[in-house]
Amino acid sequence: MVYSVITNEEEKLISNVFPIIHIPKLVRHFKLSNPISHSESSYFREYWAFRNLENKGALAFTKPPESIAQHAKIEEVKRIKWQHGSKVEGILAEHLISELLAKSIDIHCRIKGLMREPKGHGYYFPLAFLPKNKMLFTGYLGKKNSVLVCGQRRFGDSIFRYHLAPCFRIRYDLFSGFIAQLLLRIHITDTMGNSLERRSIVARRKRIGRSWWNKEWLNRQLAVMSFLSNEQNEIIIGEDPDDQVVVKSIPLEGSVSRGINENILKTIGAQQGLMKSVEQSDGAEDM
What we know:
Layout: E1 6-7, E2 11-14, E3 17-22, E4 26-32, H1 38-44, E5 50-53, E6 57-60, H2 66-72, E7 74-81, E8 87-88, E9 91-92, H3 93-111, E10 115-116, E11 123-124, E12 134-138, E13 144-148, E14 150-155, E15 158-171, E16 179-190, H4 198-209, H5 214-228, E17 234-237, E18 245-248, E19 253-256, E20 259-260, H6 262-271, H7 278-284
Antiparallel strand pairs: 1-20, 2-19, 3-16, 3-18, 4-6, 4-7, 5-6, 8-9, 10-11, 12-13, 14-15, 15-16, 17-18
């Protein structure tokens, strides 16, 4: 049977791109009494978004928390106004600002209660962090909805646990300003929370991902941004208005003159044994 997957109806496109609408205009240069050790650096990064310099210095948008400032004897020496194409202490401004923005969002995720992936590039929702492991949000049609952020699945004779794991990539080469691109990952463990071998992780991620189509990924994207923004239109990071990083929680949208009939795709996938319904993937199969 021949299916017509392409339709002539206009279709809305919702991206995974979120504009960063406020970035501090000044970068602070700090002097440290001693170089930051590897162990100190790992600890500091949990609470302070900074770029470590080799000459006992650091660059950041904000002052460090008082406990860190006293421990490392950190002193602010100057503030530098950055602009596109310029350099800040020898570092290209775009590279430095991208790094500080990414680290600021990471800290915000940690403050909100997410846990860092042991070997990944983002954070994940831990078990029992939310009631019934479900996250409430408003869908793109304006209706209240919910998604699982953590669940269990059967794979062969064993059971594994999966966690929704958001990761943000900062880009400045797509539009005129900086944007945050949300990449949704799936963190996989055994039922005790222990990491699995890489081959086992990949196979289990594929098992889940192949049953999530555009709608399922979009719902999870909207849920994550709703959670991080406290159900507001902006994610506000920082207390001082001048030093705040502000990210829109509403993604950039567009439209095209033709669309894709996803019901046909699901039919094809079901015939090929490639997918299960949303009810199965988020209910019947979950333990």
